[in-house]
Description:
Blueprint: E1 17-18, H1 22-48, H2 54-74, E2 79-82, E3 86-91, E4 97-102, E5 106-112, H3 115-119, E6 123-129, E7 136-141, H4 143-162
Antiparallel strand pairs: 1-2, 2-3, 3-4, 5-6, 6-7
Amino acid sequence: MSVPGLEPFAPEGVQWRRVSPRLATVQRIALLAWLLPIALVALVLAALLTWWVATAAVLALALAAWGWWVVGRQVPAWGYAERDDDLLVTHGVLFKSIVVVPYGRLQFVDVQAGPLDRRFGIARVQLHTASPSTDAAVPGLPPEEAARLRDRLAARGEARLAGL
Length: 164
């Protein structure tokens, strides 16, 4: 039984913004880029050496299928919310996580996008604080939203630091 307002992963009055579903495509491509070559090498070795090496190929393909499913479940669980004094970042389905980053603790905010991210029109906003345990990241944002969030967080962080 949960008491309204006391659920740790559903703070009262918070409107979550979700990441782009294109993040799932990028993560799935990255997953296949690692596992398919392993499966192909194992199949070639099985054909040249012995049949039992094919179990490595089957295992790699099973991991790829499982990873494909997991990515499809994890990406919709990513979210962030801006409040007056802090930013909330949540993710996870089986192991849920919520990180609260007070604006006054922000040291800097950067936006990152690899070649695959840029190809699919997404970026990652990385928040850095003095304590690594309160660092947070929001992946899978459209570039315009990533730039807006970066500028807004930097401005809020500066305003909170000025008050100290």
